[in-house]
Design a protein that fits this description.
By secondary structure, the chain is of the alpha/beta class. The chain contains 13 helices and 18 strands. The chain binds ligand AOF and zinc ion.
């Protein structure tokens, strides 16, 4: 008979703690943990970065004493049970004398998947799982980690913002504001989560984006991948683009084709900027093939990528079925100009396990393709 009645608020709080590692734990998951004694939270911890202490070890370390009898450890992900970069958390829990553990989600990493729970139970620890709805939320938090650890395939997400009538730009070739402030702030948060971001050459030429995550307390630059088959973005006919000249230029990677590598002037310019060029395979249309983009991520050991278009790149990735996850921001504005640019048919996409959020006047739907 179970003597443990877990507290849902405390379970939820482990998710809040996990999110403190938003974007900093790759390729590891975000995990939060707390220790409760007699209804009081006496220590908290979270996983900050791969190679660093896991959430359970951080919480036990923050307690700085032996947990009292009856202490309950709440953790957002199943405790690991084998040695990776760090020793197993199951050992840390047992060594601390914890006899009750509440777990929100099972670790999909096959080294652990359920083994952590079994091991603890076999050692006489009472283990309780969160209710399914909370378990799903805990698991969903680590959607990038989950796919990468299960399949070895980096998670490629495509973000697009469209007007109410399906346009991605008010005037083709020029930057335009499709969504409002809240949606743009939300994009910054996703840019902070993904280890890499990517855009096509047309977007770099038209918008001159910086592709950084600008948050209230931090500016962060993911690995910036520019997909540019001919190295047109390095043309001297316009001002050098920000991604090549700002203080994060060494975090920009140009992905091009054999044809692009023959543009020797552009190759020399990239070298001057300190920007690395990767040569990938081309499709029948002569452009970098979507599978070459995925291969580049695998080669660089990047577990996820947030692709912000433009529409040519989005179309080719969608038709090659190289998109795993979509973020569709839908504005309530209508772009009626004859120069407006149609995007891919986002409204028609079937999104699995869809999450919908209202952001000011705009709507975001995101989920698996
Ligand atoms: C936990 N708590 O806070 C995290 C876990 O190489 P390591 O030692 O960091 O182990 C990485 C694996 O551990 C990772 O693939 C995932 O299965 C698990 N992450 N587990 O109990 C944590 N970050
Ligand atoms: Zn662990």
């Amino acid at each position: 008979m179970s003597t443990l009645e877990p507290n849902v608020d405390l379970m939820e709080h482990t998710l809040v703690l996990a999110e403190k590692g938003w974007g900093t734990t790759h390729p590891n998951p975000m995990v939060g943990c707390l220790i409760e004694e007699d209804g009081q939270v006496v220590a908290e911890g979270y996983h900050q970065q791969a190679g660093g202490p896991h959430a359970e070890v951080a919480a036990l370390g923050n307690l700085d004493r032996t947990p009292r009898e009856g202490a309950v450890l709440y953790v957002s992900l199943e405790p690991c049970s084998s040695t990776g970069r760090t020793p197993p958390c199951t050992s840390a829990i047992l060594d601390a004398g914890i006899k009750k553990v509440v777990v929100c989600a099972i670790d999909p990493d096959s080294r652990h998947a359920g083994h952590g729970l079994d091991l603890l139970r076999n050692q006489g620890v009472e283990v309780v799982l969160a209710p399914p709805e909370l378990g799903e939320r805990a698991a969903r938090l680590n959607f990038i980690f989950n796919q990468y650890v299960i399949t070895g395939r980096p998670l490629i997400a495509l973000k697009m913002a469209t007007s109410a009538n399906g346009m991605v730009a008010e005037r083709a070739g020029y930057p335009s504001r499709v969504t409002g402030e809240a949606a743009r702030a939300d994009v910054m948060r996703w840019r902070r989560l993904f280890p890499s971001i990517c855009v096509g050459s047309g977007t770099v030429i038209a918008d001159d984006p910086s592709l950084t995550a600008r948050l209230p307390d931090e500016e962060w630059c993911p690995v910036r991948i520019v997909v540019d088959s001919t190295l047109a973005t390095l043309s001297p006919t316009f001002a050098p683009r920000k991604v090549y000249t700002d203080e994060h230029a060494t975090r920009t990677i140009l992905l091009t084709t054999t044809n692009g590598m023959e543009n020797l002037e552009a190759v020399a310019r990239a070298k001057d900027y300190g920007v690395r060029i990767i040569e990938g395979g081309a499709g029948p249309d002569g452009r970098v093939s979507p599978s070459a983009i995925r291969q580049a991520l695998v080669d660089m050991e990047l577990c996820g990528m947030y692709c912000e278009g433009g529409s040519a790149l989005a179309r080719s990735m969608l038709s090659a079925e190289e998109v795993d996850y979509v973020f569709h921001y839908q504005s309530s504005k209508t772009f009626n100009s004859p120069e407006a640019l149609y995007g891919p048919d986002f409204a028609g996409l079937k999104i699995g396990h869809e999450i919908e959020t209202k952001l000011g006047e705009d709507h975001l739907r995101h989920g698996y393709l």
